[in-house]
Amino acid sequence: MIKPFSRYSVTYAAFIATSLLVAACGAGGSGGGGPSATHTHATATTPALNGFPAPVLSSSNPSTDEKIALGRHLFYEPRLSGNGTQSCASCHQQDKAFTDGRALAIGSTGETHPRNAQGLANVVYHATLTWANPALTELERQMEVPMFGENPVEMGINDRNRAEVLNRFKQDASYVNLFKAAFPKDSDPVSFANIIAAISTFERTLISSDSKYDQFLRKEASLNESELRGMNLFMGEKAECFHCHGSFNFNDQTRFQGLAQVDTPFHNTGLYNIDGKGGFPFPNRGLFEFTSKPADMGAFRAPSLRNVAVTGPYMHDGSIMSLKDVLDFYAAGGRQITTGIYAGDGRTNPYKSDLITRINLTEQEKIDLINFLGTLTDEKFLKNPKFSNPH
């Protein structure tokens, strides 16, 4: 049995040290890329966040308390959508770690999104920001997709209603004051650029770092026997969860100050094989949608497992409902679907990651793993008034 921290401490224990000039290796896998030139990097004076490394900060959109306050109001504001019915928080709810509890997200016009809404906990540390788009690495650019995208429609802002949406805020005295305070140098501060900047700034404050597991690392709490067994399985060579979820953020795409190299791997986990040749259902074909490379078919980003007990349903399309089912899927080395339009044996998908192999887990071991994953829930984060609806 692998002892606690024997592998994991290489990445995490270093983060709870006092030194902020962290050097670490990235997780294995395909993909690449690095921090944008618009961001600052390691300094010896930037404070860590409750044991986490210092995040990469935007030099073009520096944080202020006033900008955070405006961003929080706008995040919960349904008037920001084209038809005035939906806010960012409609798909990113605090009690669900800023997911929505649905298999697939639903936009302001009722259109179903083809993918599951991702959580926003620790989004400031993500190297890429969607399930499978390697180009979206900045919150400011990513936010343009839900706000202005037309396929699918999410917030539903378009050329026909842009002026109307802005006027809703220009005619609200309280919002005018919030915009002026956040952007005091702008003669006309109510703009989409400033809306995006403010919400991005607020989202960078959504730090989840006080789960039972974090408290355990800081020797402020104890794990019970089942949770400890689950931790050893998670971090050991039998379950091998740490290969894709072995960072301090429990994923393998992280970015922080002092990191020598930022890796952006994407993985095919054998979820589908609809044609017997590795096919995934359109439009959810992963990295392939951007590269057109057959080897990238079905390759998606491994999500963070922080707060995973409250972020179901799971996978990029919300097609697995419970953590028990997720573990059964991985233990089988992929998913076999025997009927319907998605029938196929994902276990034999030719593009499946070498990391996904059959794991002989007992029912008790599955229970232990689920109990350990439950220690990643940060109850304070889910209820933090600083992140709640201010309206």
Describe the structure.
The protein is mainly α. The protein is 26% helix and 1% strand. The protein contains 13 helices and two strands, in the order H-H-H-H-H-H-H-H-H-H-H-E-E-H-H. It has helices at 65-75, 139-142, 144-148, 162-170, 173-182, 192-203, 212-217, 225-235, 242-245, 288-291, 323-331, 363-374, 379-383, and strands at residues 336-337, 344-345. It has a two-stranded antiparallel ribbon. Strand 1 and strand 2 form a beta hairpin. Helix 1 packs antiparallel against helix 5 (173-182), helix 8 (225-235) packs across helix 12 (363-374) and helix 11 (323-331) packs across helix 12. 46% of the residues are buried. Residues 1-47 have low confidence and may be disordered.
Mean pLDDT: 89
Report the end-to-end length measured between terminal Cα atoms.
51 Å
DSSP E strands, number: 2
Structural class: mainly alpha
> Which residues form runs of ≥5 with pLDDT under 50?
1-47
How much helix, percentage-wise, in residues?
25-40%
Tell me the Rg in angstroms.
21 Å
What would you call the shape? Answer: globular
Can you summarize the main beta sheet?
2 strands, antiparallel
If strands are numbered along the chain, what order do they take across the biggest sheet? 1-2
Q: H/E order of the elements?
A: HHHHHHHHHHHEEHH
Percent of residues in beta strands? Answer: under 5%
- Count the DSSP helices: 13
